[in-house]
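2.7 Reproducibility. Because tokenized structures are sensitive to small changes in the input, we list the exact sequence used for ABC transporter ATP-binding protein, including any N-terminal residues retained from the expression construct. No trimming or masking was applied before prediction.
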Amino acid sequence: MSRDILLQASDVSKSFGAVRVLHEVSFDVYRGEVLGILGPNGAGKTTLFNMISGDIKPSGGDIRLGGVALSAEPPFKRCRMGIGRTYQIPRPYSGMTTFENLLVAAAFGGGRTERESYAFCAQVLTDCELADKANTPSGSLTLLDRKRLELARALASDPRLLLLDEIAGGLTDEESRALVALVRRIRDRGVTIVWIEHVLHALMAVADRLMVLNFGEKIAEGLPQDVISNPEVKRVYMGVEA
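Resulting structure tokens (single pass, no recycling of outputs):
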């Protein structure tokens, strides 16, 4: 794995009025790795994603992609720069087919021409095991397939950094294993991934490193087994007293 830094967050903070959601969180994400983010509800995980993708602005600190500061860039420009993301609750264009959802992402998110988009999206559908659902209205897909579509739409923008927000939530063990296999294939293609997840076994099966947040502060970061064995993580995240 290359040790070149793709994403760098330095002392990132966010407050909504008097409520502090994140406080001086710093971390690096290396090209080609999977960084898993853990933390109880309200820890600030999704707020962190929203600041990386540009949905909200930090109250303080600095976020860089490939050394380029993102503070002034709106979400659509960050997408063109190579940041793709999924949402915890899938957000397909329900009146469009699965394939049409991908075409929108490829053309407007990835900046591809119509001719380029068709061939590229067909390959993404195959990669995400959705080729047989290409003409299915996205609003009628099963939960697993909606999550696959959420992933496929992010991939259709051809990201170099993929932000996954609890994509394993609500799935059966078998469906979760299928999703983990898909995330592995994405990682093996060289896409850098930051993954927020409560389904711990899914995250542990893929992540190279873990970071844990609690009440907006980083309390642990490192190799997965080291982090899970951390007494503070056990207490905060698993409810286990050391």
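The chain has nine helices and ten strands.
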